Amino acid sequence: MADPRYEQIAILSALLGYGVLSLDFGISPAQGALTLGAAIATEWLGCRIRPVGRPGRRFHVASPLITGLSLCLLLRVDDPVLAAIAATLAIASKFVLRIDGRHVVNPSALGLALVLAFSDRAWISSGQWGSVVLAAALVVCAGSHIVRRARRSDVTWTFAAATVGLVAARALWLGDPFEVAFHGLSSGALLLFTFFMISDPRTTPASRAGRVTFALTVAALAHALRFGFYEPNAPIWALVACSPLLPLLDRWLPATERGAQTDGGFHAIPTHAQLPHSHAHALRS
Amino acid sequence: MRSRLMLSCLILTLTLFGADTAQAFCGFYVAKADTKIFNRASQVVLVRDGKRTVLTMVNDFQGDPSDFALVVPVPTFLERGQIHVGDAAVVDHLDAYTAPRLVEYHDPDPCRPPVVMEMMRSTASPARGDSAARRKSLGVTIEASYTVGEYDILILSAEQSDGLETWLRENDYQIPEGASEILGSYLKQGMRFFVAKVNIEERERLGFTKLRPLQIAYEHGRFMLPIRLGMVNANGPQELFVYALTRKGRVETTNYRTVRLPTGMDLPGLVANKFPDFYRDMFSEQTRKENSKVVFLEYAWDMSWCDPCAADPLSPDELRQLGVFWLDGEASNSPPTQPPVRPMPRRGGAAQDVFVTRLHVRYDAAHFPDDLQFQTTGDRSNFQGRFVMRHAFKGEMQCEAGKQYRSQLPARREAEAQSLASLTGWDIDEIRKEMEISGESSTGEGEASESAQDEENGEASWWDQLWGSD
Hints:
The complex is a heterodimer. By secondary structure, chain A is mainly alpha-helical.
């Protein structure tokens, strides 16, 4: 099966192109170039500098490109240098923050969270996607997942179902029409998060039970942050906050042999250069 | 008499203003288009930093003051000191400062080296009492009641929306059908209701003929404007202007697209005489093109300066009146307010540490199901709705460049006409005809802080320092 990352690059590039040309996305060419350049350069450096005694990693442009494109789609900055910093931190985290031989925090989410937390000049414009492009993107992303029958899609579908369910339950409790409730879900950031971030095979638990537990936890925390603390970027914070659960879930709910087999599916933001081969290796670890 | 209820957002009626002329950087500032040209418009000033919000609601209610009533969901209980009556003139000034503007430039002699054109381009970047027993049986709690200026104000909470609705009806508030569910939703979200009526005696004693804007200050994570109640019985779309004042940067909606108003276009000179019409029709056309689903950004600028200025930036004193609470210390050092008669660009003036965003939205229930949610971004880049009128050079032109310049003029006029038609939806043939009649378009026919006090220590609250105790 063809490397699914090329398909992701195509979808992300199309979204970015449409957003820049038609939706006033507010991203300058300098920011785009700096983000992608910094992501690729950091990946290249990370592959070159390896601890002694460990096998080196072959550099591949796809992984940093996907992280960079995700950052381009989500991150808005007053100074393009901040975008470069976010991309550098995102990719560097893959090489630095490692437990049991794998990185545990989603690189894009971590890059975003760090820049949002430490700078007043960065933000996420989640409302800038028109409803038309959102609907089209939803169909393409969901369709792609279904066609590929990606095993890791369970994270995406569980998260999506839990998010919609929680919002629907809240609307029922408040007596709000569903139209009001679901309006809040029509966010480009949420869509990217659901299909491209939370399903990253490198930063989700190895077993299905673990993945479902993980997705439910992230969805519940995101819901609480959004409606209890009025945090507009709730899913990003929730995903970063839940990352420490990964090694724990892998220990409590280890993958069975069958579940550990690689699927070559629609991997969101895979961060290892040698997918699907290294992916299988990571799952067994 | 039953009070007429104005839910959530307010009604403003239409008057036209006169265009004024003043010199500005690299050209003449000719006209601005303020909010008064729109029917049924509300204006809201949102001052926000951290979790602190000061909301000013401008009300141009034209009817009998005894008919006026306002019900606004608020996220927290409000003490007396958190409510204030402001001055509409300051909001008018803010409106004028942020309004879309028309500027005019005179082409230089093409036979001399042109140096000004590039510079010109570079600037574009736009209760009544009720028996306590009855109230209790309905589950409605009057948490507080105040008289502030000419208003009687209640802070209500309730256990059930039905009880609240019944109580409001029994107390002569006309609640439209369908409001109950929305009241219930806000109640379950822990919100209270800020209810205001005009105290006729106080109003006569104070001598104000127009109702002044109500201001509330509170500290809460929610950064939103409740518009759902106002849409229940709305007759067609409503117009809303939001002026956001922050320390960090531009404000945008998180649950609707924020789109920049078209800006920087060259337009025929005939626009000078009807710039308000142009603005109104242009806004309608742009709203239509975006399927009525977006919020328009009309102005985003650092309050220290402007270029060209439709009006002077607001003084620290005016900003403080609007609720900019972080200017502590600066106001006392600054000179008293100068009358706004010098609409010149100001660069590097006294740093105000205030960034203003002007948002304009035409909303109805079909296209805006949910309240407006906002976020402050770190974007400090300047934007203004600015339109340009270029007067052709009319002197002697003997050189080759002059001939070339003259031959390009018809194409330029046509492009200006096309721009105008595309922006407003006006008939292109009518525009061409009008340009011909006026001998246009190359002639100049249109000359036209942070409060450091710790509340828990019993010291004055930040809002007390803002308005004092009145």
